[in-house]
Amino acid sequence: MHAVVSNAFEIAVNDLRRCFAEHGILAGRRKLNFYKARDSFFASLGANSLGEFSASWKSIELFLGMQRNDGLIPHRITTKLKPHYHRVVTEPLDGNALLVIALKDYFEKSRDKQFLLKHFDKTRKAIEWLREQDKDKDGLLEERFFGSWEETVLKSGKVLYSNCLYYKALLDFVEICKALNKYEVGVRYGRLAAALKEKINSSFWQGNYYFDWIGYVRHDSFSTDGNVLAIMFGLADNMQSQMIENKIKQHQLNKVPLQLNYPLYPFWRIPPGLFPLDAYHYHNGSSWLWLGCLNAIALDKIGWRKDAKEELKKIASIINSNGSVHEVFLDGKPVNSLFLRSEPFFAWSSGLFVKAVREISGKGIKN
Questions:
Q1: CA geometry: angle at 320 spanning 14 and 347, to 5°?
Q2: What is the largest CA-CA distance in the chain?
Q3: Strand partners, 77
Q4: Which domains are assigned to the chain?
Q5: What residues pair up with 25 in beta bridges, in sequence order?
Q6: Residues 334, 331, 352, 159: what is their CA dihedral angle, to the nearest 10 degrees?
């Protein structure tokens, strides 16, 4: 493995471990010093790849322990164990999906079938809560403003990112059912996954990438999050995947990497108070290392291994130059302004960098 990547790997491992806490994985150790579902569960994929399973199962048990009767888990839990289920005017969808994904990944690496069985009923409730968010019964989930991780962009309707995670959660729940010999239950969710795959491709695919989201109309901005997840999860076939990656190259979105969207969202889709600040770009033209990590995995998946390793090197160089894994970047540098500062020791990106290195060039790495 390249020395640049090896050094960054050690930094990422240390940053990830900094976020291990009594009840699971914290989002960060400064302004993000709380448990956040999407951050904790994405980060747990890195912990699992290291074999550090206690951080993963603690996170899963923490959020399932505060699951509502209808199946929703909190999107955030304070260090004093106060749960928050709403984000402004909505209930985020991705936490429930990522819970299932994290649980399946934990089982796949640890083979802890007792843990899987212990939490099966609550996991199924989490999936059922997601299914209920298909309000018009067309197979796709709908969400209101601030319902996905892009919490500063006004999107509502059927969002690609959330539906890709829902698809992966369905697939992983099928695998959980198989592991527990609950085949009849698994068949039902397998059919839902197959129908969802067809629906995503018929509704979102526009010729060389997937639409960002579908409201009253299809919004044709190119958002890398959902498109890269579509490659990783097998929603996109090989030809579609190559078209998406060529789109990323065409607009040099992997220069940092990886820029979230092209072109920029119009100013009226960002809350007005953020317009004069760097926070205006937080989810609008900024770059995120976790997205670059997923893109490296996606490139490797379609056989572009040289590109995947180059992507890893670019991310590693950024980590090395800053001495830690940062949250968000503008113009190649961590955001550092009066009203918005990039979180160092960012668990989400640390965990996914560890996972990406392990999968692409990390076999045999010792830590």
A1: 40
A2: 56
A3: 35, 83
A4: 3-360 (1.50.10.10)
A5: 20
A6: 110
pLDDT at residue number 275: 66
Burial 245-284 (b: 16+ CB within 10 A, else e): bebbeeeebbebbbbbbbeebeeebbbeebeeebbbbbbb
How far apart are the C-alpha atoms of 186 and 179, rounded to whole Å?
Answer: 10
pLDDT of residue 277: 65
Quick check: 178 and 186 in contact, CB under 8 A? yes
> What is the DSSP pairing of strand 328-330 with strand 287-288?
antiparallel
Share of the chain above pLDDT 90, in %: 84
C-alpha–C-alpha distance, residues 164 and 51, integer Å: 27
- Helices of type H across 180-237: 183-204, 224-232
Q: What is the mean pLDDT of residues 105-134?
A: 98
Euclidean distance between CA atoms 64 and 78, whole angstroms? 15
The per-residue pLDDT for range 30-54, each reduced to its tens digit, is 999 999 999 999 999 999 999 999 9
Would you say the pTM of this structure is higher than 0.85?
yes
The rounded distance, in Å, linking the Cα atoms of 40 and 56 is 8
Residue 330 Cα to chain centre, angstroms: 20
> Length of the chain, please?
367
Burial degree of 201 (CB within 10 A; 0-12, 13-18, 19+): middle
